[in-house]
Structures
1.
Amino acid sequence: MFLDYHAVLVFLITGAAMVCTPLIMGFLFRPKNPYPAKTMPYECAEDPVGDAQVRFDMRFYTTALIFIIFEVEIALMFPWALVFKDSPNKALALGAGMVFMSIVFLGLVVDWAKGDLDWVKTFQNKRRVQD
Amino acid sequence: MGLLNNTLPDNKLVGAVDTAVGWGRKSSVWPMTFGIACCAIEMMAVFASTFDLDRFGAGIPRATPRQSDLIIVPGTVNAKMAVRVKRLYDQMAEPRYVIAMGACVCGGGPYVKWGYNTVKGVHKIIPVDIFVPGCPPRPEALIDGILKLREKIGREAVFARREKANAEMTARYQV
């Protein structure tokens, strides 16, 4: 009864061969010539300085998220602006665009109100847990 | 070098494989994003749309030497830069090619007599495949250099032993 599954075996062997063959061919064909100057980290040909795992400030994360608001807005407004000229109902097209822009702008307003645009956060109206 | 590189006998079959591999190599020569001085402006023009190096498969300047096959040295290499140029060349993976672009890199150029800090020719620090003279060379001149380099790569022995190919190269260019 195991012979009924020979197709699976062929499938497994083919899959393994398709992974192994390029690796073996690469091992046979590729030039391999490592030496210290080649294997050192690339920092625009300068001597490497510091650690590769640099820590970024978490506040950049918020800034990047806010950037996405504008990025999406710009990306989606290009096609809208392109077809606007040929639109039969310009008032409707303008209104739809304005609705979209206001929705996206609302995200910015919320961020602004919550103080995410400030580099140094203020905690004026919030109770802080004193520790 | 590699396990099979330049180890097989130089017969018709290996020659055909070498031709195929050489065709692949010469059709995707990726240069490194590297500009030193005024020749780099002409080099950027070659990459841009008017001259369009992508016609020859060399139009993708890579940001790191690990991914690039070709280093165009465009501009005056002074003593401080020479160390960096050498290291950049060292960090490229084989096969790697060098185009010396401009009079300064080919042999000192205007600094050949009084340039106290200029390396008179980049061939003193790294092996150069193609010299493109000019101050700066026209974009057409650099394209001609790239075409010459493609010709050279296409005739390289990849798996075949080197003697015959080297003899052909010597006879052709009379080095």
Note: Chain A has two domains: 2-39, 59-114.
2.
Amino acid sequence: MRRRRRRPSVVVAVLAAVAVAFFVVPLIGLLQRAPWSELTDDLTDPVVRDALRLSLVCSVSATALAFAFGLPLAWVLARTDLPGRRLVRALVLLPMVLPPVVGGVALLLAFGRRGLVGQYLDDWFGITLPFTTWGAILAEAFVAMPFFVIVVEAGLRSLDSRYEEAAATLGAHRFTTFRRVVLPLIAPSVIAGAALTWARALGEFGATILFAGNLRGETQTMPLAIFVELQTNLGGAIALSLVLLAVSIVVLVSLRDRWFPA
Amino acid sequence: MVPGMSLDAAVALTLGSLALDVALEAAPGETVALLGPNGAGKTTMLRAIAGLLPVDSGCVALDGEVFDDPRSGTWIPPERRPVGYVFQDHALFPHLTAVENVAFGLRARGVRRREARGRAHEWLERVGAAAHAGARPGALSGGQAQRVALARALAPEPRVLLLDEPLAALDATSRIDTRRELRRHLGGHDGVRIVVTHDPVDAMTLGDRVVVIEAGRVVQAGPLGELRERPRSRYVADLVGVNLYRGAADGGLIRLLEHGELVAATEAAGDVFAIVPPRSVALYRREPEGTPRNVLSGTVEHLDVEGDRVRVIVAGPVPVTAEVTPAAVAELELTPGTSVWASIKATEITVYPA
């Protein structure tokens, strides 16, 4: 039986068209000003190159941090019944809705040189996080890790726990079970979570500029470089914007079946 | 049974609305069939033995080695119990091939990859699934998956083998073959075997001994012949297909617990069960006169055709099931709602103490 398609009224159709235009026109603006012929030159500009390299390092490191700490956290949230789990989940998800600038201020007050934890890191270990590449990585991880945790937790929840039980009755310890049974079975969730986390980390601006500053080659990632270049080197800013746009589209397309069904 | 050389599981635990309290002993080389309706606690019992659930009180021990005892705080996790578990619906790892599934337990116990694969292949051959060694579980039929699941549970050579509804997922045709094969494989395992099923035919074919569980309690245990001759609950009576009554006997007269009375040819006293085989119940459209001592009135509730016989379920003050020929059904014009008289000869009633 053919499904009957409803026709929208004229008013609704016009409003919807305005909404679409609102999303599409800026993209056209970006693309039509793109200096296609000089793109190679713009992308090899030292400032742009430094920003590209640093963004790659920071976003991959932030994703690695999210994997290393987020995976155990997702497991605890999905598979245990520790008290306070709901509160923990709410706290973990907070950075997703918190303005990144506020996150940057909070990071500074916690890990800054005179911060709650930062002063001891500085005094005892001589570790300084703010205004370093590690600071940029931390800022990106703070903002992006929740994506990894919620996606992986959802994957774990939908995994039939009988596979873990079967592995246990076959003599596999919990870590072996996790490595050989759970991880392969939730791999799609882990990959999707990592991709979302990486994309979010790559675009991070507010927390990074507050906590890590804007030092070329040290903390000036692509979004920060775009902000600076916009005033002096429009071509470079557009080139970097195009790189980020391309990355976004690739992530969107590769995850569309799983997270953005048509 | 040699003391200390067997599985000794006294399991008491509460899980949702189920309050399980079952003591089970099983010797090596013996297959115990846990039979009971859905929700009786059969699977929960297996899970407690395997260590997938802790007991609230009681004790699970094998050959004197304690696995779980809350009083002494002893707890051996499932991965350290020598227990093989065949899950209902098999729970084969979907990302591994059949042979990798079977090798999993050996690998987890430290057997080297090459040797584990070799032994896994041997197990697959033994259960007749060698042709599917390279297939993923998604590509296996129910019967094939069942064989692989059995090989996977047997490969680490457990001392206790637990099977949860091993035949429930199969269609009627493969069920008969698989049941026969399963019986052979169980015979080849020299440890304790426990099979959970809700199907009396499975219990009969696979079990040396049947333990019937209802609502978390053992209602009857013993060889199947004993269950057939001396059912002690409505569930068991329905399984073996006899009419079961309970009452107080005074000589040949039995006053039934619910309503009415029966007259038996044998004398008894006190709380008794009485069974009547449906084949010995005669049906009439008019009240019969003459010899029969027991005449029950009622209406036909429904008719079940079973092979060349028809089971007629009669509702009334004393409910009774009769088994008659299709010719008799036609002659008596029996349909649901028909009022009938059922007669039982006193000599056809077996009475035994409750």
Note: Chain B has nine helices and 19 strands.
3.
Amino acid sequence: MGTTPGSMRILPHVLEVEELFVGFGQLDVIRDLTFSVEQGSSLAIIGPNGSGKTILFKALVGSLPFRGRIRWAPGARIGYVPQKLDLERDLPVTGVDLLRAKARVTRSGEDIRGAARDVGLGDELRKPMGALSGGQFQRLLLALALVGRPSVLLLDEPTAGVDQPGQERLNELVHRLQEQRGLTVLMISHELSVVYRYATSVLCLSQVRACIGPPKSILTPELLGEIYGAPLEFHVHER
Amino acid sequence: MSAELTTLALSLAMAVAAGLVGCFVIMRRMALAADALSHVALPGIGAALALGIHPLFGAAAMLFFGAALVWGLERRTRIATETIIGVVFSAALAIGSLMSSGEELIEALLGGAGTLSLGETVFGLVAAVAVVLFVLAQRSSLVLVLVSPEIGHTAGINVARLNLFFLEIFALTVALGLRYLGVLLMGSLIIIPAATAKYLTRTLTGMLVGAVVFAILATLAGTLLAGVLHRPMGPVIISVAASLFVLSLFARRFTRLRSIGKAT
């Protein structure tokens, strides 16, 4: 198990996945998945609940066993923003505690205040995590992912449980950080309009089949209907 | 050094270790495991007495084995740790009670009288220092994995190994209390001061310091009170710790009421 270290040749892709199988026990949720991600691109992962989006991320970071091949480019560093966390609300752990912990473990010697400023957090960092609003907490997780200077960001529904203005702010923030730092972004999202706006390619997972391509060819009513098993409508923002 | 001073030094070292480990036991929601873990020492004690070796080493060996067993089962079967701990340790209690006599059992569970041997003292001090160093060195990794094992992986932490080490350190802390507080009460010294600190503090450092302070307070006050009341030390220490916990509930309510009063 674990990620396979990259070979010495320079990969055109930051990530290559070949014939991947991931699941629990005898049941494979992800079956024979092959795709690759270009350096600096933005891959959106869509699909109905239970299609294995989060499981895919867990396999990519090495926390779930898998069969097949996952190859990260040499030197790729991953920042991970997990899906809504099941944490006790009165845990006496502040944002500063978390950011400092990751800076210590990754030995990055980073200015954690800087990481917090990048996501627009200030004095909130001194509060226990449970005292933060949904949007503040997600921004804290984003700051935590940024500690250690990652080259790739994995975001699992980063705007779930955040109010509408907060969602837009968070999406713009991720996009801005990506442009400023040349990051590669992999994002699981249910917001198809956001996917349409920011993603350079879309990977769809479903029980029926997996497909990958540019947003225009994947986000069609016919294909979405097939993936989700029901007709879907979404509003397209112009880029 | 006199026997009393040695005992005091050992009990303070144990309090510090218990307080620190307790913080992560509480935050990982393993409070019940501390109680269950104490039961696993019993078959070890029984086996050690049957073989004529020191019960402490039998218990420590059994606790180490039990923690590794729980870790292995959890990884292979992905059943919740709580469930596995419940099954493994209840079975251990059953086997242990079959293997040892009533009197030995009570002493192991609730702590025994009598002076500590040199070997016991050295084992206690070395183990306590090891526990304290582990928690302080690994606190950042423990906190990250607590929030999300996946974030831990991306930070380069070997999460499975860290979980195994934590369980072993937890088991070692329980073993520490065997001759002194008894394994049952040692579980309480791990949980109660940390729970008190969690209730009263807002930062990680605050909780770690708070838990150590409450564990030391309970140990010192309990030891003094036990002398005055002519009662066994273990139960008095735990009663003091529990009283501090109850007081903390009132203290927090009071500070909350005051802050509401200020706000209006």
Note: The mean pLDDT of chain B is 84.
